[in-house]
């Protein structure tokens, strides 16, 4: 998997960035910072390509994107190896092979859906027809946690609806993304999908460019707010997925044997580095010991280590910034006298490993509960009444997802109805689906991805109104 084609020697102007394997700290390559002149040229090429792409019959775009899905499937193994090497998630379990299958599915579904024109009004005097038109050039800003899958979420619906896309991968996961783009571009016409690389400044310049019509962003709230500011320059439409601090509420008396694996993976999928992971678990005080023990027992059997070894299903934290942030939250929990209910085995490695950690004797108001940890550390919080659990779950600036766990679905639905989140799952967490709209409430962002709503989000509505 040697890749030197994107490696550029450092110069005084080039503040390029080293991409590392987070399991071993092996250097993968040096990421080139695309210059402003190069970004301008990329946008010019995208504008020309977009006109030709959107002029094609819709059926042709669908067919081409289905061929993209086939190409992704054919290259799934080598792309999964790239993800493991650069992002860190293991090949096994819900890891990089799983991410590649999601890339294939999230390409096939938007390629198959239709957004037909709609007669929104008609009487004897007039007829008004609503069409969905491409916006133009879309800037896609992807993160490092699910670098290929989230890039696909941004790219494919945009292309499906006739836009051109310029993708800026996270500097941490550039090489795996470039490998995927090579595969996709072996099918697409020239310049419909292009990539610019480098640090946040590259994303900042791209998103504020006057020729950008839409920004698809996934990342932190802080950077999401910068993207909002950038869009004040060009009036770009926005889809912002700014993560969450998802609460899960276990209703009293849950039969854990049926649910413990889903609770574990709801919290620890991709080492907890997932926007819609379960990040705060609220448990009735009578069930607290039982839940903590069941989760600890389950966790103790989940192997962590270098993801290239197929025996491992948990891997490292993706980067040093995130590693330090999680360690800081663990240290803060120690300082406030939290209970460490379980700490897993740390692999004997140089890599950015943090073992699965279950923390008790904490509450809203403590940093480990209030802040998104984005790592394999789960606070378990006792509650006395359901009303208290709901109020604490809603006591957050975030509102991406939430979950309710119960053997009584009616009761779970009643609680779900009171939670402030874009999606509330019952007896599962983070169970996204390419047909089902996904987006956040509160500061988790705005706009939705997936399904028909996701396709509409990369279009401008256009009405043709006919006098009869
Ligand atoms: P960022 O929000 O900074 O990164 C997300 C993407 O935005 C990356 O491609 C990044 O590029 C790019 N970017 C950075 N600055 C700008 C800018 N001014 N304009 C446009 N694009 C920009 O997240 P971090 O990597 O700093 O992670 C911080 C926290 O964000 C995590 O601890 C986690 O809580 C959360 N997060 C949430 C994710 C989610 O899925 N919702 C995904 C990742 C992080 P580059 O990486 O090159 O700087």
Automatic annotation (TrEMBL):
List of catalytic residues: 241
SUPFAM superfamilies per record: ALDH-like (SSF53720)
One Pfam family this sequence matches: Aldedh
Keyword Oxidoreductase on entry: yes
The species this protein was found in: Chryseobacterium taiwanense
Aldehyde dehydrogenase domain sequence ranges: 14-463
Similarity comment: Belongs to the aldehyde dehydrogenase family.
The keyword Endoplasmic reticulum appears for this protein: no
Key words of the record: Oxidoreductase
Taxonomic superkingdom: Bacteria
Matching InterPro entries: Ald_DH/histidinol_DH, Ald_DH_C, Ald_DH_CS_CYS, Ald_DH_CS_GLU, Ald_DH_N, Aldehyde_DH_dom, LUC3-like
Name of the protein: Aldehyde dehydrogenase
PANTHER family in UniProt: ALDEHYDE DEHYDROGENASE-RELATED
Molecular function in Gene Ontology: oxidoreductase activity, acting on the aldehyde or oxo group of donors, NAD or NADP as acceptor
